[in-house]
Structure formats: C-alpha cells, structure tokens
Amino acid sequence: MSPAPEELRDIPTGEATPGQDVLINRRELAALRLRLSEAEEALKAIHNAEVDAVVVKGSQGSSIYSLTGVNHPYRIYVEQMQEGAVTVTGEGLILFCNQRFAEMIGVPLDHVIGSLLPSRLEEKCWLDLASVLHTDHVPVKREGFLSRSDGEELPVHFAASRLPLRDQRVICLVVTDLSEQKTGDALRMAKEVAERASAAKDGFLATLSHELRTPLNPALLGIATLQQDHALSPEVHSTLAMIRRNIELETRLIDDMLDLTRIANGKLELHEAPVDVRTILEGAIAICRSHIEDKGQSLYLDLDAAESHSFGDEVRLQQVFWNVLRNAIKFTPDEGTIHLTTSNPRDHLIRITIADTGIGFEPSQAARLFHAFEQMDRNMTRRFGGLGLGLSISRSLIIAHGGRIWGESLGPDQGATFHIDLPLRAPSVSTPPPMPAPAVSSSHDLRILLVEDHEDTRNIFYLILEQKGHHVLAAGTAHDALRLAQEHSFDLVISDLGLPDQSGMELMRQLHGTYGLPGIAVSGYGMEEDVARSRESGFRYHLTKPFDPARLDDLIAAVSRDLHRR
C-alpha cells in the first residue's frame, strides 16, 4: 500500500492525555492557522482603528457595532487626551479605550478591550451610567471609584453619553482621574481644620487667661494697698509679701501660656532699645532675692564681664534671666548654693552662667529641657509645680535676640549649669528711638468714670482711686456708664472690655466720639490683637489684669499731664 500523500498525512498535535497522541489533518491545521492569523489581524485592526464595525456573538444572537465616522485626527486626539476614553456596550463590554484609561486601571491596553467594565465599578455606579441609554440624549455625570489591578480604588469622575448610532446601544465615557484633586481637597480641608483648631485654641487660651486674671486683680490690688500701711506688723507684711509673690507667680504662668501661643503663631514681638545686660540681670536677681532667702540658699555673684551694653528688649531679657534663675532656686534644695557669673568669651559677646547644686538631670536629657510642657517625669511636676514652659519660652526669646541657651549636668543630684550667650549689638541706624515710658508724677484730682462689672474688682478699684484723691463714679454696665456720662463731666474713663451688655471697646467709641474722653482699658485679655483693638477704639492705654497699682498711677499721671497741656 502506497503511503498517503503528504497533504493528507496525519500529524501528531501533541495535545493529548499522557500516553495518547491526537492526529490532525494537515489541511485542518492550515485552516486553523489561517483563522488564528485572521483573528490576530482583526485585533490589530481594532486596536489601530482600521475597521468599521465589530460583530459580537452572544446568547441573543449576533450584534454589529459600527465604528463608522471615527476619523484619524479624532483618534489621535483621543489617544493623547489626559482623560480616559471608553466605548462600552449596554451590557458593559468594552469595545474601545485609549491608553490613558488602561493606565488608570493598571492593565495593558490589549487586555482591556473585550473585558467587562461593570466588574471594575460599584453596581450603583454602573446602573447610573447605563441609564444614559434610556434618556433623551442627556449626559450622565457622577463620581465613583475604578478598581485597579493592584486592588486600589481610584477616585474618578464619569461623563457618560449615548453614541448616536442606528440600532446600536453604545455608551461613550470620559473618565477623569480625581486623585490629585481629592488629595488637594483633603489637604485644604486638613489645613482649614488645623486653622480652625488653632483659632479655637487661641480663643480658648485668651478666654481662659481672662477668667483666671479677673479674680486675681482685686486680690493683687488689695495686697498692694495693705502693703502701704506701715502700721501693720512685720509679720503681717511678710505674709502679705508671700501672698503677693504667689499671685504674681500665678500671673506668670498665665503669661507663659499666652507667650507660647504668640511664639507658635509667629507673633512674638521684640521692643528693642539700648540695654545694659548687667542691669537687667541685677533686676532679675532683685525679684528672686526673697525666694532665695526663704529657702536659706546662698547666691554667689561674679559679674566680671567688661562688656555688657547691647540692644534688645529689656522686658523679655529680664523674663529669660528670671526664668532660668527661678528654675535654679526651685530645683535646688534648702541651704543649697547658686553661682551666677558673667564673662566675655570673645568680643561683642556676653555669657551669663547660672550653676546650682540642685537635682540635675541625665546628660542625654539636655535637649528635652527646652521642649514645651517638658519635665523629666510627673513626680517632678507634682513636687515642684509649673507647666514646663519657662525654658521653652526663654529659648525662643534668646534665639530672637540672636543668641543661644543650653544646659549641662553630670547627672541626677549633681546640680545643673545653664549658659546664655548674647551678642552685644548696636542699634541699626534706621531703628527709631524708643518711646519714653510715662514718668511717675503726682496727678491733680481727676474726675474718673470707672466701668467694671466684676464687683470685687470694682470695689477695690474705687477704694484705691478715692485714696489717691480722685473723684470717682462707678458703673457695672455700659448702659449705666453712658447714663453717668450724660449726667456728669469726666476727665478720664477706666473701663473693663468684657462688659455684660456691650463691649467696652464700643462703649469707648461712644464716650470718646461724643465727649472726647481719653480712656485706659483694663482687661484680662492681653494678646497683641486685644491691645491693638482697644487702642483703635479710642483707649489711650491698655492694662492687662492683674496689674501693679503703681503702673496705673503712671498712666493716670500721663493723662493728667496731657490735660494740663490743653
């Protein structure tokens, strides 16, 4: 028997179960290869937009989807646009998409066409988009999420339109990536929330300071008045001094909270003028002297710096020196010693060193000392008190002066040493000379309208002003103050800002505008914004509670001198 012709010979396909060959006719193999080649060419033609229609066979028969009218320039635009472009059947079969859409879902382009879009959307989202087929050519727009191949959800915006094709249900989708916008929105929202929280915090601290200061003011005024009575025994004067120190300490803690807020908001201002660092240091020592004596501590001074004149904020520098020296006193046991020295390690630099024999600290903790609200442990807070703000504020103030501050210790119970380096600066030529402080002088009897809603403060205020020889009428509300202003003549208004029926600033605008009265604001609100607003309303000066009566005397004397010059 002759062998079969070559074209009819059966060829093992290699596609069989183990141990079994399946034979296929060479003609059938050639036909199969031709069909595969045609299919491959068809896919390439679809991808390259070289066909006019696509036939899709399904359970309901075959459907023809025409792509007639899609010209070459349009396809170039679609491929280069930044949005994803998708053509999809009513059943969700993707007929076409551009490269941008494939990148959005993280799938190669040739794997996207022919896949099902609904599998990448929430069901409700797909139903909304597919509803465009049943509307009167009204586009459907909505936001949703695309499921990416990596499992992530991409926030997008869909714009769905029905393609105007005869006898075909085809949806055209434009898909916009919203991830950057959402990130930007989230950042803006986070910023707004942070700003609102910061404003709320600042408002809370300002209100808290007002509420804390208000009851301290009559106590401090009463103590100051009693201290002027020389008929009282030394023991009583000692007790009064102790009470006053504690009131002033409480005030300092309140001021520290507000200072921290100013520093955090970048609103810390320095009122610079020529200063003598040694004189400022001696002032801080004088303030702390009674505390040192109470604890039986020994203070050794070695103020040998040859250069000490500079340019800076005297009040803020004294605050720094007071903070550091007070810490040395607080953390040094009774009968301990404190050494305070000054030197000039190089030209135009002064170094203040405060060393004590106190509790010390671990060397590794040195940097933490200058963190806000930082103390080495809670036991220290309970034992020594304080908020842990003094050194943090001091560091900010010294940096603002161009200097630096640091602490050293050999370990617990081995004392601590703090160094403050300050450059000795000269004032710049463009710096205006400082405004002279009101000098203390006797003022003639003034007719004063006192407005204060806090009864204890109003009563002690009234008593002090009467003792100074002034004629005083007092009111607890803005309404009563306006009535008194209509019935009597006054030289000066001293008013609280937080009145129950009207703002003290609005009251001052009316009194100043109608009667030309000068005013001194007295308030528990002491932020820079509070001071600026009170002056804008017509107050000449602003006192923050609690205050030293001597300071009030200075301001009344200044008003009195202005009245004399008229």
| Shape category | elongated
Strand content: 15-25%
- Low-pLDDT segments, ≥5 res: 1-17, 68-72, 430-442
Mean pLDDT comes to: 79
How many E strands?
21
Radius of gyration: 42 Å
The first-to-last residue Cα distance is: 144 Å
- By DSSP (H or I, 4+ residues per run), the number of helices equals 16
Q: In terms of structural class, how would the helical and strand content be classed?
A: alpha/beta
Characterise this structure.
The protein has 566 residues and is α/β, with parallel strands linked by helices. Helices cover 43% and strands 21% of the residues. The protein is built from 16 helices and 21 strands. It has helices at 26-47, 72-80, 99-105, 109-112, 123-130, 179-227, 234-264, 277-294, 314-330, 378-384, 390-400, 455-467, 478-487, 504-515, 528-536, 549-565, and strands at residues 10-12, 23-25, 53-58, 61-66, 84-89, 94-97, 140-147, 153-162, 170-177, 273-276, 298-303, 309-312, 337-343, 349-356, 404-408, 417-423, 447-451, 471-475, 492-496, 519-523, 539-544. It has a five-stranded antiparallel sheet with strand order 6-5-9-8-7. Strand 5 (84-89) and strand 6 form a beta hairpin. Helix 6 crosses helix 12, helix 8 (277-294) runs parallel beside helix 9 (314-330) and helix 9 runs antiparallel to helix 11. The chain is elongated and about 130 Å long. The protein starts with 9 loop residues before the first strand and ends with a helix.
